[in-house]
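Readers of this paper often ask what the protein records in our data store actually look like. An entry from our holdings is shown next, in its original layout:
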Amino acid sequence: MICLDVQLYTNNFTLSVSSEHLCEIEQLLEKWLTKRTATKTALQSLVGKLVFVSKCIRQSRVFIARILALLGKVRHNHHHANLTTEFRKDLVWWRRFLWEYNGVSMTNIAQWTSPDEVFSTDACLAGCGGVCDGQYFHVVFPPFISAQTLDISSLELLTIVVALKLWGAR
């Protein structure tokens, strides 16, 4: 069983994996680096442990993707998979950065404003609008914006920039 430590520093919470459990994961990785094949069940166990600690190891989730891809190719729990060079590269990353990237800071949300308390914006492909402290705006996008056929994320961001320009000096 791998446990997570939660520590409080000033107004931030830090989630991290304890040193004892980092050692356990490191030993597990060492064993896996020497294996040539593994059953689906064994791969599932490895993935489960890595996914669990990935909540506390920054930038680690991407290094589970190829392991999951390999896992998806094995049909039955007792079948074996050949462990590839790419698989080993991900395990080497985990071994190298497990200790260095341990700890994810979580800002104490008690100091933040509640959602939509400062301002709120929304956009669609045709236009945008926003509201702040009883004031609002809404507008159809001008042709030079519409002609760019921007994705909705870009239009949402543009709307936030407009709101900041209108109300940022408050």
